[in-house]
Design goal:
mainly alpha; 6 helices; about 0% strand; elongated
């Protein structure tokens, strides 16, 4: 049986970068949650979605397409938030914590999407 640390050490560095971007996205959501808990009904659902997608990346490690989960969740949250008209108003909020959390989340998720695409291209070339 492969341990979690063995599985994580087998992950290519570009995929690890994508996972770190997802981690930054979670940190950004936590900052927003702390800054304005009333915005979220209970626990922010985005944290769970991002965590599940990160787990799927780790479970599918070794396949060139495993970072697709990072790319999909990142683009879904960033472009979905933009299309729904939620992302831009959060950047214009009077609450500094909301603005900072939104910036960290967006930067992390964009980073996760870009490095996930790079990781898939690198995986195809192996």
């Amino acid at each position: 049986m492969i341990t979690i640390s063995e599985r994580f050490s087998a992950i290519p560095s570009t995929t690890k970068l994508s996972l770190s971007g997802l981690g930054a996205g979670i940190v950004g959501l936590v900052i927003q949650w702390i800054a304005d808990p009333a915005t979220f009904p209970g626990f922010p659902p985005g944290i769970g979605f991002i965590a599940v997608c990160a787990a799927l990346v780790v479970l599918a490690v070794g396949r060139w397409w495993s970072p697709i989960f990072s790319v999909v969740i990142s683009l879904w949250i960033v472009f979905g938030g933009w299309a729904a008209g939620v992302l831009v108003p959060n950047f214009r909020s009077d609450n500094a914590g909301t603005v900072a959390g939104n910036a960290v989340m967006t930067a992390g998720l964009v980073f996760a999407a870009v490095t996930g695409i790079v990781a898939m291209i690198a995986g195809l070339r192996r």
